[in-house]
Design brief:
Elements (H helix, E strand, L loop, with lengths): L12 H12 L10 E6 L4 E3 L2 E3 L16 E4 L9 E7 L2 E2 L2 E2 L13 E6 L4 E13 L5 H4 L6 E13 L4 E12 L2
Parallel strand pairs: 3-4, 5-10
Antiparallel strand pairs: 1-2, 1-8, 4-5, 6-7, 8-9, 9-11, 10-11
């Protein structure tokens, strides 16, 4: 007669309780912090943003349509350290575009970004600046560290018909409000 394998005589209660507690603990859902809506009440802008990438020449692609607001999808998310970068066209051949009045924003104007998880990040305009395109402050605008901020960008200054573009960029810097 062969003997059967020895059966356990005790159960480790500590391990059992821990494994039961672990099994019951829900896995937290990942929050989707990508922007779902950009609101700039002073400009009457309320748009869902289009994700934009950096092109091979190092520039951020432009939104596909003049009514679109685009956001740098590989940059900081709203509310995270660094600047969330949002861009829009100034105008088109037929008239004003989504960021036509961007240069008219004032200190303290509100910009609200609603994220895909329905949470909201509020920003207040700190400054409105115009830079020659050839001297664009990329390091300052596309920063990935420091306090949470927002950089809104459009064209500005004189239009060069030969080159088919504006000579300057308007950048609005905003700080997280709450």
């Amino acid at each position: 007669m062969t003997s059967s394998p020895r059966a356990p005589t005790t159960v480790s209660v500590a391990k059992t309780r821990a494994s039961v507690a672990k099994a019951r603990r829900p896995t937290p859902a990942k929050r989707d912090l990508r922007p779902a809506r950009i609101r700039i009440p002073a400009l009457r802008v309320d748009r869902g943003p289009v994700p934009l990438r950096v092109l091979e020449d190092g520039s951020l692609e432009a939104p596909p349509r003049y009514v679109d607001v685009g956001w740098w999808q590989d940059g900081p998310l709203p509310g995270a350290a660094g600047n969330t970068v949002v861009v829009g066209h100034l105008d088109s051949k037929t008239g004003p575009a989504v960021f036509y009045g961007l240069a008219a924003l004032r200190w303290g104007d509100e910009v609200t970004v609603t994220r895909r998880d329905a949470s909201t990040v509020h920003y207040r305009v700190r400054s409105v600046q115009r830079f020659p395109a050839k001297d664009f402050p990329a390091t300052r605008v596309y920063r990935r560290d420091g306090p949470p901020g927002l950089a809104l960008i459009t064209c500005g200054g004189q239009y060069d018909r030969t080159a088919g573009r504006y000579l300057d960029n308007v950048v609005v810097f905003a700080d997280r409000a709450r």
